[in-house]
Amino acid sequence: MQKWIMSGLFFIACALAIVLMFNLPGKEQVAQENKPTMPKVTLDAAKAEATVKANCISCHGDQLEGKVGPSLQKVGAQLTNEQIFTTITKGKDAMPSFKDKLKPEEIANVAEWLAAKK
User: Fold this and answer.
1) Short name of one Pfam family for this protein (predicted)?
2) Which of 28, 43, 67, 97 has the fewest CB atoms lying closer than 10 Å?
3) Cα–Cα distance list, 58 to 1, 20, 31, 91 (Å)
4) Burial class (CB in 10 A: 0-12, 13-18, 19+), 90
């Protein structure tokens, strides 16, 4: 009787493993889902600067020189606009996500503005 129970449990575990193997997303699919899509925007420097002043200067400084967060004065030389967009949207390390605080278009405008800083 015990052999039958153990065989049944083994069969159920194998069947579950096969089902999960074919239904779980692959690494590429997970990476694509986790990468936010940057909307196309026309740079509005005044709006971007206002957004930065309202949301970023407490950590990055009023001249973007860096305080708690890193300096952003030449961030465009290190990161693309899409990388900046992803960082602002999802957050990174100690930086919080702004996806619930700012609209994607606002984040994209700030990303374009920061990407121009080289």
Assistant:
1) Cytochrome_CBB3
2) 28
3) 68, 46, 31, 16
4) middle
pLDDT given for residue 6 in this prediction: 87
Q: Is 14 annotated as a binding residue?
A: no
Nearest to 107 by CA among 87, 92, 93: 87
| 38 belongs to an annotated ligand binding site | no
Topology classification of domain 35-115: Cytochrome Bc1 Complex; Chain D, domain 2 (1.10.760)
Q: Is the pTM of this model over 0.90?
A: no
Q: Where are the domains of the chain?
A: 2-27, 35-115
Q: What is the mean pLDDT of the chain?
A: 90
* Residue 101 tokens, joined: 């605080």
pLDDT beyond 70 at 78: yes
The count of other CB atoms within 10 Å of the CB of residue 48 is: 21
